[in-house]
DNA sequence: CTGAAAGCGCTTACAG
DNA sequence: CTGAAAGCGCTTACAG
């Protein structure tokens, strides 16, 4: 080790590089080593270090859907809380898939300092034989497996129901997501329950579902609308903003006035929802916070702390825009 | 090492695990070791292996913009070509940023088998002191730094110009991206040149630019349209599909008939462009191929081969849809 | 406070 | 064809 040529043993260099000098290295040596490190641009070889320590400085983030503006925010939050002490690396799988058992084994062979898993299912967690620090994101109902950070989508769903009821809507349609993720069941159930309590009816016949895809949602809406219209539906709630974009698209084609003839709302509050015309009313989910908190929890675990609150839930809030509220406006087209 | 308990030395196990048995291990031992490996679910510890070999099985993909449907396709291609011999990990940076020098040093300390860098700039490559296998993606003009796989956006731009000229357009506007990336200069230059050759005018006054953002593009178009209209502009070409979505959005609000009163086209052919209404005419870029070829080139480098063709260029092609061609149709709204 | 030494889990000449 | 041994770059008891 070249750095040791600046006066001391490799052991001392290691101590300094790891900040474990307290009461073990003289001030004199500390500064001498620091200078040598700076001069040589030395960076601790993480492979050697990992082998000796039994663990690396890599944190692996596993997620089924990385190409998603919502997820980009989550990542930002994770980065912020993890800082530069850890290398955040994204596990890349086929779109919409979680890594398979042998992928996981290979990832474990990297000896990551910790694992962050977004939107897992029970089967995945069952297989996950990893023993290291683990935090789940957006895994409602799976709290038994590991500390997790969840989103309280139900509260936002109730706010949305109240908003629509307050705007005078009485018959509402629901455009669901067909993926079996727990969050969608929660969104639907919470909304339906609150709607019923507020005197709005969501006829089972007026509930449909598609994949999370603008085109699919658009087609499904186009096919369903005549019937919904006949049934007196004046508002449609979509399980995701992506579904809602499909509805907005078809509604424009059909010349439907929004929100006068049809109010539209979604969940997620994706960036595009703020700039679309009309703006899309949506249940805002704190993506960056989700990442941030998950990162903090994982740090705690890595540092061997016991988490005071292993289960965290973040609030969702309704953002009202032009798609349900004429007054909410948004920018209004050509000037 | 537990696996060696199945009869032989660790050296033999290592040989089998690495497939270096040719003429060095007896058939007998090979199968005995294989069985032991299977029984114990043994996976080579990549940290120990990396240290001994001096290189890991990690391939790091560095990119400024991971939350982009186009990029998701690129990743798919990379995965396919890299297979399971390498761990593909995404370096996560702030949105739109490439990693800084010390990030890179830390990544290098992981001893990656290779590096894939998407859309870099010269400054980044200057700093990149990494010595290992390196392949650039979408880095026109930077071929001097490393083997690269590029996109021939110019040919698509020329096709687009021919298509618009053939549809009778004479005055065209251009909505550019303001980020300095080389690809945008190429898109613009190629289109303008071909347009001029075909007798279409793109008045400098009818060229504007915004960030890659639907809202920003929508506003800019809204502000510019009155003048464009007065100037007789009948088509607008956008540097990205994202820009075009903004134009389509505002055009709908204004009640502009598309493509009759205004034809709109973009670059990238994002998934949404196929399902929007009208569908968006766009220059298709082979994202998955880009990733696939880059992965193949990197593999070659890692395996010590000399690349027969270190510089690859993939063709772009025009996809004509309803936004420029009434006949191209697309699905047509409520049935 | 300091350094020599063992060991992390592998791979690879090397001698047999 | 096979195994003992050295070594990859670090960290961490341990003895001083």
Automatic annotation (TrEMBL), chains A, B:
Keyword tags: DNA-binding, Transcription, Transcription regulation
Coiled-coil zones: none
Entry annotated with the keyword Transcription: yes
PROSITE patterns for the chain: HTH_LACI_2
Top-level taxon: Bacteria
Domain (HTH lacI-type) ranges: 1-53
Name of the protein this chain belongs to: LacI family transcriptional regulator
One Pfam family recorded for the sequence: Peripla_BP_3
Keyword 4Fe-4S in annotation: no
Transmembrane regions listed in the UniProt entry: none
Source organism: Arthrobacter hankyongi
